[in-house]
Amino acid sequence: MKFLIDAQLPRKLAKTINDAGYRAIHTLLLPEANKTTxxxxxxxxxxxxxxxxxxxxxxVDSFLLKKEPWKLLLIxxxxxxxxxxxxxxxxxxxxxxxxxxxxxxxxxxxxxLLIHQ
Length: 117
Prior knowledge:
Elements: E1 2-5, H1 12-19, E2 23-26, H2 38-48, E3 51-54, H3 57-66, E4 71-75, H4 82-100, E5 105-108, E6 113-116
Parallel strand pairs: 1-2, 1-3, 3-4, 4-5
Antiparallel strand pairs: 5-6
Helix pairs in contact: 1-4
């Protein structure tokens, strides 16, 4: 399972996911780094089956209209400290990975992992 972390999320999240046994990269590692367009992120996601992790609602619109990116995890925690976000992921990463086996669009907030159809 591969995760692509969008620009507005901390780079440390990719390390956390990698340390948990999954593969993750941050947009900073892409050729255009954080200037990579949403369209290019979607193309990469679809062609190489990356799950996009983002706070950006534009990806939700794209997913609902075009089924791009391939799979989507929307972070809807509001503004929280990076270490809180990391801890939230650590406590949910196994559930996130298992849920993505059968679903394509999930949302993580401070209390729940939501499945969108």
